[in-house]
Amino acid sequence: MAITFQAPKGTRDFYPSDMAVRRYIEDIWRKVSIRHGFQEVDGPTFELLDLYKIKSGDEIVSQLFSFTDRGERKLALRPEFTPTLARMVAEKAAGLPRPIKWFSIPRCYRAEQPQKGRLREFIQWNVDFIGEASDRADRQCLAVCVDALLECGLTASDIRIGWNHRELLTKALTSTFVAPDRVSNAYYVLDRLQKYDLAARNALYQEQQCTPQEREHFESFARAFGVPGGNPVGIGDFAGNWPADVLKSIQVFELRLADTGLAELCRFDLSVVRGLAYYTGFVFEVMDAQGQNRAIAGGGRYDQLIEMFGGPAMPAVGFGMGDVVLEILLRERHKLPEKLMPVADVFVINALEDSAVADQLITQLRRSQWNAAHSVIIRPGLNVQTSYRGTRNIGKLLQEASGSGARIALILAPEEAGRGMLKLKNLADRSEMEIALSAVINRVHEILTK
Amino acid sequence: MAITFQAPKGTRDFYPSDMAVRRYIEDIWRKVSIRHGFQEVDGPTFELLDLYKIKSGDEIVSQLFSFTDRGERKLALRPEFTPTLARMVAEKAAGLPRPIKWFSIPRCYRAEQPQKGRLREFIQWNVDFIGEASDRADRQCLAVCVDALLECGLTASDIRIGWNHRELLTKALTSTFVAPDRVSNAYYVLDRLQKYDLAARNALYQEQQCTPQEREHFESFARAFGVPGGNPVGIGDFAGNWPADVLKSIQVFELRLADTGLAELCRFDLSVVRGLAYYTGFVFEVMDAQGQNRAIAGGGRYDQLIEMFGGPAMPAVGFGMGDVVLEILLRERHKLPEKLMPVADVFVINALEDSAVADQLITQLRRSQWNAAHSVIIRPGLNVQTSYRGTRNIGKLLQEASGSGARIALILAPEEAGRGMLKLKNLADRSEMEIALSAVINRVHEILTK
Q: Do B366 and A66 touch (CB under 8 A)?
């Protein structure tokens, strides 16, 4: 008895209709990246295990799928692209034209328990702008992200983008209630406030040895932050105590976001802190405006990372967007186009006894972009389909032709073929005409380009 | 001191120019598959280790990168796509429309010693036609393969395709010198004749317990086969002894190949046996016509495989083509287009003190396909680039604009901007004009669509 197998836990099979959705999303990512002047890169699917410890420490190892090669080197499937990016930049930094504007669409892997929106294998769009320290690069990254979301049909009622700035926030914190040597503790706490209830927060304060004054301030943040996905948290109550230059910088950045067409979706949001320790300035997060799903994308400035991987000191900003949550959101909001699968241009119906003429015709149609003699041909090779049912019943074959999505059916039948002719049926308007075999390619292209 | 890392042995980093080549090849594979009516699919990058033993036995395990997940399940990175394909078909066979015409472009992995044309990580195009037993499906697969190679610019002086047919060959062998119970031994020997010298062949005959009569026949094959990549081996000397119906079938298939436009590149070739045990009928191999590289692609009919994976009995035929050897060949024969990287449409030069106007303009140009009010706009969002050099020297910025490949430079300078105008420079013909900021989007699209 044959054993039946399934896809491993946390992975996906992409049947044609699933693949069409994946291609739709990937094509938008690629198209938008390119029109913003980013160039595509990729790296190996696995790296030396140690590469992943540089940024994330030893704790990352338990979340990796790791293995050894024949040379007993320890390798791991990539959980994210940033370490590969940093390695690639560090390796060739001297020879790369600046600024470096790269994007990639790698498959990534996490050895975690699968949940809604979080799988063991997923695809993550990465956009990184390296070598430019100004906030123009921050806004450029944000603009690519927003354009892709708009291109997917998402609007302000679907998504909300919160931004923050670690450098500005650090200034505000240290000028109000956080001692300079307590900044990293403060970020550790801030990142958790929204997810923890009061008891958990108290334990957190204890663990981080917070002063009574710190506790008091964090609790006022916690009240403002509310629950994840709630309203954006402006400076509001805190503004009175914040340094004027910090407030001014936030205001200027908001104005510039408006110039870049981003004001409608993006708001300063104090609750967006981003957990990762390596962010150094601007940070942002794309959230479900209805608060039901995990974060859709997130990123920020990481000016010290390239150096950590052995490269020169290079400012950098970037973000990642996974396919899993985005696809869930697009399905929930009915934003996926109905017809994503490629359809046939032409369906050839062969009611002749022999396949020779049909085979020749199909081949010519599929290769027809190479026919340079006919200046009317402006479309590349046609998508041509035919039946494998072994029937010569034209009625049944016309049904199959309609199902293929083709706009044109070409019918090879004995009577017409004897006169060097065939029947062309326009499946859109149901009109029919008889046309010479020798003229069919041009006629088909004319109809399709109308 | 920072440690520097490199890509793991046998894997590749894809910097922008490498990625452009990869995309060029993948796009041709995808485009050609679709116009032949195949639908794209994909599966997980890793499967349960046992899945790979079904087709290839326990020996495959040493060639796999394998690991365990948290549930102690044994997993392996896919060395090829066929087991995933067979699993996916077997799992949903009842619900899939027939015939099943699928293609995929997966990354695959082999834990082998890397060599020229053979890496540990590679990309393999797979095309499979399932549910159709006739030789129309065989030719359909061959036609997709040939069309992709033609689309890459390869000709009969670059590649040669040999085909053979296991069922016909088995008939010929058993009607001449091979006993029915010795057929699999005969294939084992035939597959190795071309690669072995006389001493190795003698050892092979001994190992396979060949009769003197078998040895004699195999030696005459070996003389005909010559060296790998030599001339195609027709039936020639053997024809006299072969059954008439076998000879007739070969002749008929050759005629049909001509109808499908494949005669120029494809020849019956007795030396193409294909090592894998699971082929049941038609087999073919694409070779470097100058004999320098490994096989470029290969495949054939495997009518029993779906059943081995727990599915219903379903005839099937397919082939695989890797990216590594193809890319080597395209480079060696100078067939890669010179310009593969996407280039800018428009380069915006900002010589104003403030970035607001430039930012607005860039955003409008990139999103300009959403501006439905202007019917002249037929191109989607433009590829717009700008400088990050922090200079307002127009001469230097024009140099950068030329380097970007853009056809148009838009120059924002104080004098013109004060009058609501900007300068448009056509970088192709060096002409310049002044135009109103409000009219620029239409004008740019007009120039680009000329």
A: no
Query: Which of B11, B40, B260 comes nearest A44 by C-beta?
Result: B11
Q: Which residue has tokens 């030719």?
A: B139
Confidence of residue A379 (pLDDT cuts 50, 70, 90): low
Is the CB of A15 less than 8 angstroms away from the CB of B92? yes
Are the Cβ atoms of B366 and A90 closer than 8 angstroms?
no
Instruction: Return mean pLDDT, chain B.
Output: 91
- Report the amino acid identity of residue B47: E
CA distance A106 to A122: 9
Residue of B nearest to A254 (CA): B356
Q: List, for residues A97-109, the tens digit of each pLDDT value.
A: 989 999 999 999 9
A268-289 average pLDDT score: 89
Residues 6+ apart with CB under 8 A from B48: A5, A8, B73, B74, B75, B76
Amino acid at A165: H
Query: Residue B57: what residue type?
Result: G
Which value, in Å, is the radius of gyration of the alpha carbons in chain B?
29
Q: Does B379 touch chain A (CB under 8 A)?
A: no
- Among candidates A67, A71, A91 on the partner chain, residue whose Cβ is nearest the Cβ of B67: A67
Is the pLDDT at A384 greater than 80, yes or no?
Answer: yes
8-state DSSP, B93: G
**d(Cα A319, Cα A161) in Å, to the nearest integer?**
13
CA distance B423 to B21: 36
Terminal C-alpha separation, chain A:
56
CB contact under 8 A, A39 and B310: no
> Quick check: B13 contacting A, CB < 8 Å?
yes
| pLDDT the model gives residue A228 | 72
**How does DSSP assign A231-260, residue by residue?**
S---SGGGGGGS-HHHHHHHHHHHHHHHHT
pLDDT band of B379, cuts 50, 70, 90: low
> Inter-axis angle of helices A212-225 and A183-193, to 10 degrees?
40
**Whole-prediction pTM:** 0.94
Burial of B287 (0-12, 13-18, 19+ CB in 10 A): buried
CA distance A52 to A110: 12
Bridge partners (DSSP) of residue B319 are: B127, B299
Task: Give the whole-angstrom CA distance, residue A31 versus residue A191.
Answer: 34
Q: Is B399 left (phi over 0), alpha (psi -120 to 50) or beta?
A: alpha
Alpha-carbon distance of B103 to B166, in angstroms, equals 24
The span from the CA of B303 to the CA of B300, in Å, is: 10
Contact B344 A37 (CB under 8 A): yes
Q: Specify the higher pLDDT residue, A8 or B276.
A: A8
Question: How high is the pLDDT of residue B374?
Answer: 44
d(CA A247, CA A172): 9
ipTM for the predicted complex? 0.94
Contacts of A110 in chain B (CB under 8 A): none
CA distance A285 to B113: 43
Read off the tokens for B191: 């597959």
Q: Which two tokens stand for residue A209?
A: 């040895």
Distant-in-sequence, close-in-space partners of A418: CB < 8 Å, separation ≥ 6:
none
What is the number of alpha carbons within 13 Å of residue B291 lying toward its C-beta? 7
Residue ranges in B152-280 assigned as alpha helix (H): 166-174, 183-193, 198-207, 212-225, 244-259
Q: Name every chain A residue with its beta carbon within 8 A of the beta carbon of B378.
A: none
Distance from CA of B207 to the nearest CA of A (A): 30
Residue A375 has pLDDT above 60, yes or no: no
Nearest CA-CA distance, residue A30 and chain B, Å: 11
Question: What is the residue-wise DSSP string for A81-94?
Answer: SHHHHHHHHHHHGG
How large is the average pLDDT for residues B90-117?
A: 94
